Amino acid sequence: MNLRKWFFLFWTTMAVGAVSTGVTGSILAWTDPTFDLKGLEGAGFNAGMMALTGLLFGAFAHMGFFAYLTLNYIALSIFRRSYLWTTLQAYTTIFGIFLFGYRLYENREALNGWIFWVLPVIITIAAWGVAVVKTKQTNKNALFPTLFLLIVGTMLEAWPSLSDDNNVQALIFMIVPLFACNAYQILMLHKLLKPAEAGSGGSAKPVACVNRRGLD
Q1: Could you tell me the keywords of this UniProt record (predicted)?
Q2: How confident is the model at residue 210 (pLDDT cuts 50, 70, 90)?
Q3: Domain that residue 121 falls in
Q4: What is the rounded CA–CA span in Å between residue 114 and residue 11?
Q5: What is the pLDDT of residues 29-74, one digit of tens each?
Q6: Using CA atoms, how far apart are residues 176 and 83, in angstroms rounded to an integer?
Q7: How many structural domains are present in the chain?
Q8: Buried residues in 133-150 as b, exposed as e (16+ CB within 10 A)
Q9: Is the alpha carbon torsion for 135, 139, 144, 149 positive or negative?
Q10: pTM of the model
């Protein structure tokens, strides 16, 4: 992974964030006329602010993705055997789903009672679909790392939207773009790494080593 490829992943992730936030925000505005971004009036201005917010979501998701790759590399160095780290990610993912549901359950009056179980189920199903695609494109060892990133990673990144005064629309407005950005990054990673692994450049080795044990 060289700087050119990393920069490509960065700006395209921001673009995914802008588009997905704009689409999500527009759908929410159509279904709920009272929804806008921080009370801003005017459809065009509000859509522009949504796109700018999406750029920030994309940058935030990219930082989270880089943090996960770093954590993955360190964990593999500590556990030595990749299946131990994979198993830990699997258990953490299951725990994260229930923790997220419980956190939503605590705010069920502000977020509507049904969301505490519907949203975790939808995220899990969507993450499973992306993980299946990832395993078909790479190998079966990518299943649980992909689920971990898409479920636990997305939930941690979206945690600020779970304050007591948030509603369902605000929660969805943040989670959907972050999930889309993480899904894009995990599906693009092995495509960017393949040329680097085929060459002899030393700069590709650290990231490639991480991904040969689960993500590519």
Answers
A1: Membrane, Transmembrane, Transmembrane helix
A2: very low
A3: 3-212
A4: 36
A5: 777 666 655 444 444 447 778 888 899 999 999 999 999 999 999 9
A6: 30
A7: 1
A8: ebeeebeebbbbbbbbbb
A9: negative
A10: 0.83
